[in-house]
Amino acid sequence: MGNKMIIAILCQFASNAYGKHGDVHTHFGEWAYDYDTGPEYWFYAHPLCNGTKQSPVNILENEVVYNETLTPLVLLNYSTVLNDASYYLLNNGHTVMMGIQTNSSVPIGLMWKGRQYNYYGLHFHWGENDTIGCEHTLSNRSNPLEVHIIHYLSEYGNFSNALNYGDGLLVWGNIFQIDNTIDESKSPLQDIFNKIDRVTLADNKTFINPIPLKSFVADNSTDSYYHYEGSLTAPECTESVMWIVNHKRMKVTSNQMKNFRLLKGHLHNSTDSVELESLINTFRPTQPLFGRKVYTSVQLMNGSSYNSTNFFNKSSEIYNSTSFSTGSVIKTTIEVLLLCYAFLIFF
C-alpha cells in the first residue's frame, strides 16, 4: 500500500472523528448529560466548559494539603424554616432542585473565612445505579448521590453579579452513601421523596413542607471538609466557585434512590425535536486539576498532614497527565485534517 493511500485512510479517519463532534452544531446551545449534547460537547456553545479550573474533580485523599486557615463554617439559620416562605421542588429537565420563595429579611446561608454567603438553591446529582452518581470522586471511588447547596457572596448583591467574580459563589457538596439499615421515615430526604412523584416530568413544580437546610448536611461536619477553587458543574461552567466538599457522608437507601431514576428530562436529539428521557446519570465526569491544589481543613491519618511533596505525588502526576480537555482533542483532530489534505494536494 502506497504512502499516499495510507495518508488518505488516516484523513478519512480524522474526518469521521471530527464529523461526530460537528453534529452538536445542529442544536447549538442545548445541553444534557448524554448523547451529542453531553459533557463532551458542552464547550461548543459554552466555551468556559473547556477552562482550566473546572469542576468536579477527583479528590486524591492521600495528596490533599492541610490548610490551617480553613476555618469552620458558621451556619446562619440552617436549622430554621421560614414561616412566611414557600418551599418547592422543580424538575428543570436536568435535575431536581429545591427552592425557597420568600421576602423575609432573615438571612439563610453561612459565614466562611469571615465573609457571608447567602443561600441561593440546592439540587441533586445521581446515577443509574448505586455505584455512581455523585460528581466528586474520592480517590477514584464514587457514591450514588451528591447534594449541592449553592451560595453567593453577600457583598456582590445577588447570584448573577457574583458569577463575575472568582470567589463569588460557594457550593457545599454533600455526598451520600448507601445504607439499607436506616429508618427511611426518619431520613431527611424522605420529605423530598414524599412529593417527588409530582415532579416526574420536566418543568413540573410542586410545593412541599418546609425543610431546614441542615437536613442536607451531615452532623458535625462544618469543620471537616475539602476545599478547592473551581466552577459550576453544568453550563455555563463559570469558574467562580469556592468548593467545600464534606469529609463525612450522609446516608440513603437503595429504595430511596429509585425515586430519582423515575424522573424524566428533556432529550434534544439529532432531529432537533424534544422528547422525554429518563433522568439518570445526571453528573459531569471529573475534570483535570491543571495544577490546582485540593486542601483539607483537618489533618488526616492520625494527625499527619499530606502535602504535594509526599510519596504519592507521582500517582497524581500520572492521573493529571492522562486527563485532557475535549477542546484539545478537537484542536488536534483539525490540525491532522489540514495536514492530511495539504499532503494529498501537494504530493
Describe the structure.
With 347 residues, the protein is an alpha+beta fold. It has one domain: Alpha carbonic anhydrase (Carbonic Anhydrase II, Roll). Helices cover 20% and strands 25% of the residues. It is built from seven helices and 17 strands. The strands form three sheets. Strands 2, 3, 4, 5, 6, 7, 9, 10, 11, 12, 13, 14 and 17 form a 13-stranded mixed beta sheet that branches. Strands 1-8 form a two-stranded parallel ribbon. It has a two-stranded antiparallel ribbon with strand order 15-16. A hairpin with a 5-residue loop joins strand 15 and strand 16. Helix 1 runs antiparallel to helix 7. The longest helix is centred in the last third of the chain and has 21 residues. The protein is globular and about 45 Å long. The relative contact order is 0.21. The C terminus is likely disordered.
Entry keywords:
two-stranded parallel sheet, 347 residues, disordered C terminus, 13-stranded mixed β-sheet, Carbonic Anhydrase II, alpha+beta
